[in-house]
Design goal:
This protein is α/β, with parallel strands linked by helices. The chain has three domains: 111 residues, 3-Layer(aba) Sandwich (Rossmann fold), CATH 3.40.50; 225 residues, pyruvate-formate lyase- activating enzyme; 52 residues, Beta Barrel (OB fold (Dihydrolipoamide Acetyltransferase, E2P)). Helix content is 33%, strand content 24%. The strands form six sheets. The protein has a six-stranded parallel beta sheet, sandwiched between helices. The chain has a five-stranded mixed beta barrel with strand order 17-18-19-21-20. Strands 7-10-13 form a three-stranded parallel beta sheet, sandwiched between helices. Strand 3, helix 2 and strand 4 form a beta-alpha-beta unit. Helix 11 packs parallel to helix 13. The longest helix is centred in the C-terminal third of the chain and has 25 residues. The termini are far apart. The mean pLDDT is 96.
C-alpha cells in the first residue's frame, strides 16, 4: 500500500510529516512526500491564515484528482480548528495537532478523534534525515497569545523536548547532513529543567561539527549572555529570524507583542555587536485592523532603519476565535494589498543592499537546478553557482559574490 504524506505550513509540520513517512516505511508501507498517485493520502494542514486553511482544503481535492477512490486522512492545525470542514469533503479520518502518530494506528477507522492538547512534549516521532540540511524539532506550542494568532489555541502551551532526546536524534544523523536547523513553534522558549536552555543546547551540539541554525525566534531571547555563548561556537550560523510583525508601537501594543520598537532595535544592535554581518530576517503583518496610514509609515521607517536582510510579509488575516477578530473591524482588502506592495519594494531594496555588503561566503550546496548549484551562506544569502564536475550536493564551498541574481546572488 502506497501512502503520500502532504504538508502545508511551517517547518514543524514538515518535520512531523517526514517523521510519519519514516514510521510508515518502518511498518512496511510505501511512503512519499510527493503529490502523486497513491492508495491513501495523509494531509498535514495549516491554519495560520484563512488562505492557509483554504489551501489545506484544496489539497484534499488535488489528491482526489490523482486517485478518486483513495482514502484521505487529515491532521494538523486546520483540522484542530474545524474538523468538520474536512469531513464534509469526504475525509475518512480526522485528527488535530496532538497524537499524530496515533493516526497510523487508526487507518481502518472512520470519523474524527481530536485528542486533548498535551501539557508535555510528545516525543514519539523521529524523522529520518536524508538531505544535506536536517530539521530537528525541539519545542512545540506557544504562550504568547498575540491577538491576531490562533496557534496557541491549536497547538497548546509551550513545551520543550528533552535535551537527551534531541542529542540522540542528532547522533543518528548521516554524515551527509552538514547543517542542523532547530525548529519549533517558539524556539525562543526552549527550556532545560524549566530554565532557558537554547544556549546550552547549541553549545552541546557544536561538538558534532555540523552547521547550526535557528528558525524563527522572539526578541526576548536576545541578551548579552546568549550572544556571548553563540559567538564562542565554531559552527553557529549568524542568521537571526526575529519576528517583528509591526514597526509601530501602537500596533505592537494592540497585537500584544510584549515589546516596543526600541526594545527590538536594542536587540538588533546587540546582535550586530557580536555578528557584524549577521543576516537579520523578519516577519511583518500589514493591515492589522488598528493600523493607520501613520502606523504603516512608522513600519516603513523602522524597517528601513533596521536594514533587515530579508522580509517575509503577510496581509493580516482575520481568524475567528482570536482577540483581534472579536475587538476590531477588518481593513479593506485593497488597503492591505497596497501596503503589502510598498513594503515588498522596500524589502527587495534592503535585500540587495545586504547582499552587496558581503563579498564572499561559505555555501552549503543543497540542490542542483539545471545549470546551477544552489545553497545558502551561513548568514542566509541564497547563492547560485555554475555547476562544475568537481562539485556535488552536500559540499560546503567558499564563493565570491559577483552580482545580485534572481532571489539571491550569482557566485564564483
Amino acid at each position: 500500500m502506497k501512502i503520500a504524506v502532504l504538508t502545508l505550513g511551517c517547518k514543524v509540520n514538515k518535520y512531523e510529516s517526514d517523521a510519519l513517512i519514516f514510521e510508515l516505511k518502518s511498518r512496511g508501507f510505501e511512503a512519499t512526500d510527493k503529490l502523486e498517485e497513491a492508495d491513501a493520502y495523509i494531509i498535514n494542514t495549516c491554519a495560520v491564515t484563512n488562505e492557509a486553511e483554504k489551501k489545506s482544503r484544496q489539497m484534499l481535492e488535488r489528491a482526489r484528482k490523482f486517485n478518486p477512490y483513495a482514502q484521505i486522512y487529515i491532521m494538523g492545525c486546520a483540522s484542530q480548528n474545524k474538523p468538520i470542514q474536512f469531513e464534509e469533503k469526504g475525509a475518512k479520518f480526522v485528527i488535530g495537532t496532538a497524537g499524530k502518530k496515533k493516526l497510523l494506528d487508526n487507518l481502518e477507522k472512520q470519523g474524527e478523534m481530536i485528542f486533548e492538547l498535551p501539557k508535555e512534549y510528545e516525543d514519539d516521532l523521529f524523522s529520518a534525515q536524508t538531505l544535506s540540511r536536517a530539521f530537528i524539532k525541539i519545542q512545540d506550542g506557544c504562550d504568547h497569545f498575540c491577538t491576531y494568532c490562533l496557534i496557541p489555541y491549536l497547538r497548546g502551551r509551550s513545551r520543550s523536548r528533552s535535551e537527551t532526546s534531541i542529542i540522540n536524534e542528532v547522533e543518528k544523523l548521516p554524515e551527509d547532513v552538514k547543517e542542523i536547523v532547530l525548529v519549533g513553534i517558539d524556539v525562543s522558549d526552549f527550556k532545560i529543567d524549566g530554565k532557558k536552555g537554547l544556549g546550552k543546547l547549541l553549545s552541546d551540539l557544536d561538538k558534532y561539527g555540523k552547521r547550526l541554525r535557528l528558525s524563527s525566534m522572539e526578541d526576548n531571547l536576545i541578551d548579552e549572555e546568549f550572544l556571548k555563548t553563540l559567538s564562542g561556537l565554531k559552527n553557529f550560523c549568524p542568521h537571526f529570524h526575529l519576528s517583528l510583525q509591526s514597526g509601530s508601537d501602537n500596533v505592537l501594543k494592540k497585537m500584544n507583542r510584549h515589546y516596543l520598537t526600541a526594545d527590538f532595535e536594542n536587540s538588533v544592535n546587540l546582535i550586530r555587536k557580536y555578528f557584524p554581518l549577521a543576516g537579520i530576517t523578519t516577519d511583518v503583518i500589514v493591515g492589522f485592523p488598528t493600523e493607520t496610514e501613520e502606523d504603516f509609515e512608522d513600519t516603513l521607517k523602522f524597517v528601513e532603519k533596521i536594514k533587515f536582510s530579508q522580509l517575509h510579509i503577510f496581509p493580516y488575516s482575520k481568524r475567528n476565535g482570536t482577540v483581534a477578530a472579536k475587538l476590531y473591524k477588518d481593513l479593506p482588502g485593497q488597503v492591505k494589498k497596497e501596503r503589502l506592495k510598498r513594503l515588498e519594494t522596500l524589502g527587495k531594496k534592503l535585500k540587495n543592499e545586504f547582499i552587496m555588503q558581503n563579498s564572499s561566503g561559505k555555501v552549503l550546496i543543497e540542490e542542483r537546478n539545471g545549470e546551477f548549484f544552489e545553497g545558502y551562506t551561513e548568514n542566509y544569502i541564497k547563492c547560485y553557482i555554475k555547476a562544475k564536475t568537481n562539485m556535488c550536493v552536500g559540499d560546503v564551498i567558499e564563493v565570491k559574490f559577483a552580482k545580485p541574481f534572481r532571489d539571491g546572488v550569482f557566485c564564483e
